[in-house]
Design brief:
Blueprint (H helix, E strand, L loop, with lengths): L3 E3 L9 E4 L2 H8 L8 E6 L4 E9 L4 E9 L5 E8 L3 H14 L1 E7 L16 H15 L6 E5 L2 H13 L3 E5 L5 E2 L8 E5 L7 H8 L4 E4 L7 H12 L4
Parallel strand pairs: 1-3, 6-7, 6-11, 7-8, 9-11, 9-12, 10-12
Antiparallel strand pairs: 2-5, 3-4, 4-5
């Protein structure tokens, strides 16, 4: 936990917060914090700053907070991703939040197993938990938004055009594709397929909306590996 991420409900006054639960346990058992120590902190969707520990025991922590620093700039990337296996989804959500991706669309494709849509991980509290872990790792406060789209064709035809407008639009696809474009800071949308990739129909339909297929080389990567590699290749100084 490189940033103590606070919620508005943690505040017991304008400057003081009280913590219990997971964050308190981390402070005691991992960080070995004591009274008088200072921690990097941030308020969810707001500024970052410093929290000084005023009181601390196994039941609660009382901290005084000063917030005066903006959150890191978001990565200008919309990630459109075929819903992965639940275990992989946990890691991808954390990684995406760590990278600064703020818009994630989880979509259905031909090769997405229908059972994936019933995983408890897709419940909002679970999604938020994994995104928070990614924010804490990165020292970020801005919560990503995750959108679930169970129908591929309506999403591509009805929503994707507006998302693509004014953006570099790409499909990560290892076959019959151009090499990865040069790094750029321009707003970008990237579609990433499931294990096994998009089928030709899906690639063709997305191409009609302006998306261009690209590849990362001869090696075929797992989705959880491909996402950070794509982000690092497409953007400078990620």
């Amino acid at each position: 936990m490189n940033l103590l991420l606070l919620d508005p409900k943690d505040f017991i006054s304008e400057t003081d917060v009280q913590l219990v639960g997971r964050r308190l346990k981390h402070m005691l058992e991992v960080q070995h914090i004591t009274v008088g120590d200072s921690l990097r902190c941030g308020l969810l969707d707001k500024q970052r700053g410093v929290a000084k520990v005023l009181e601390l025991d196994t039941n609660r922590a009382l901290l005084r907070v000063e917030l005066n620093k903006p959150a890191p700039l978001p990565l200008p990337l919309i990630l459109v991703m075929a819903l992965p296996r639940p275990k992989m989804l946990k890691r991808i959500l954390q990684t995406s939040a760590t990278l600064g991706i703020k818009q994630i669309f989880l979509i259905n494709t031909y090769r997405v197993d229908k059972s994936y849509w019933s995983t408890p991980i897709l419940q909002p509290p679970q999604i938020t938990e994994y995104l928070r872990l990614g924010l804490e790792q990165a020292g970020d406060t801005l919560m990503p938004q995750v959108h679930l789209r169970k129908r591929f064709k309506p999403f591509v035809e009805d929503e994707l055009p507006a998302l693509v407008a004014g953006r570099r639009a790409l499909i990560a696809h290892p076959y019959d594709a151009a090499p990865c474009p040069a790094p750029s800071s321009e707003p970008t949308l990237v579609a990433v397929g499931p294990e096994g990739g998009f089928i030709p129909y899906e690639v063709a339909l997305m191409q009609t909306q302006g998306l261009t297929p690209f590849h990362l080389g001869e090696r075929i990567l797992r989705v959880e590996t491909a996402v950070p590699v794509i982000a690092s290749r497409l953007f400078p100084l990620i």
